[in-house]
Amino acid sequence: xxxxxxxxxxxxxxxxxxxxxxxxxxxxxxxxxxxxxxxxxxxxxxxxxxxxxxxxxxxxxxxxxxxxxxxxxxxxxxxxxxxxxxxxxxxxxxxxxxxxxxxxxxxxxxxxxxxxxxxxxxxxxxxxxxxxxxxxxxxxxxxxxxxxxxxxxxxxxxxxxxxxxxxxxxxxxxxxxxxxxxxxxxxxxxxxxxxxxxxxxxxxxxxxxxxxxxxxxxxxxxxxxxxxxxxxxxxxxxxxxxxxxxxxxxxxxxxxxxxxxxxxxxxxxxxxxxxxxxxxxx
Length: 282
Description:
This protein is an alpha/beta fold. The chain is built from 9 helices and 12 strands.
């Protein structure tokens, strides 16, 4: 199968759901999107009006779920009760795609941050085993996301070698974050395009796009609080050139503008996708 005809769990351009613009969606009968992403931790225990609103949206649009607290790299046992709660949540909302960060976020309690896992063979085996267990409980293949990080963990392997080792051993999918790749490439002095080209096309589920803060020429902070920078748009275009047109979702977590402004960036994603698809046709 060629890169241009691969089957993905979703298609087109998507947007991460945030409560900041929930009312705007319901007040705009013309609002349309190819797919949306929900953070289950923010919704799994909600009933009432918010629960009904989410159900109305998941009946109207295709949704994927992107988790924050599974703690794949943590030392504590997996919270299997929570994983089964997720399974029920996914069934309720017909969510068939689930991703998590390749990170740890717990110690004696929740660290409220996504910390990098040491890039070692031992850690790769450990995390892959935990991912396989999550997939077994959920009865579905999940995806892992490459995170942004600022302090380099213990490093026997490169970040690229570590991620590919986990993907192969866990037999899971990949949520490739283009902005995280750009941020890490600047902060840790490697080639972002080479990194993206070394990711296995056959494991891609979808892509993330987001904004970052330019602290300095050699220091970028992944904030999800700014518009997507031109350098990241250019990297997205090159990603499509190499891997084909992959479904792509916009994230925005802080300084959230009106929905209409966010949709302008979603339309930019569509523009890059259509441009690449036109090249296939010609």
